[in-house]
Design a protein that fits this description.
This protein has 98 residues and is mainly α. The chain is built from four helices and no strands. The radius of gyration is 19 Å and the shape is elongated.
Length: 98
């Protein structure tokens, strides 16, 4: 019996696109939420029209953006190291076919 999953060739692309959108949304939310809440509109404006005199823009660019990039990079590197470890140890439970 064939699965419906295999009959839809665009599904992996849709799943990847959905995960990218979710990642970008979480990235923007992490820039907006903190001890001092900032609107998403203000976060976007800090990238397009940066104002040196605006305190919220400086908070985003100097504190929250490096922290968010560090967290994202740490997560990517942890997932990569886990993948490499599973490949080196040849763990049969980590097969993609399961």
């Amino acid at each position: 019996m064939e699965s419906r999953y295999l009959k839809f060739p665009g599904r992996p692309l849709l799943v990847t696109l959905g995960l990218v959108v979710i990642t970008l949304a979480v990235f923007m939310i992490s820039l907006a939420v903190g001890g001092f809440d900032i609107n998403i509109k203000t976060v976007m404006r800090s990238f397009t029209r940066y104002d040196f005199n605006d305190t919220t823009h400086r908070i985003i660019q100097n504190i929250r953006l490096p922290r968010t990039w560090a967290a994202a990079l740490t997560g990517m590197l942890l997932s990569l190291s886990g993948t490499i470890l599973q490949g080196v140890m040849k763990n049969p439970l980590a097969l993609m076919l399961i």
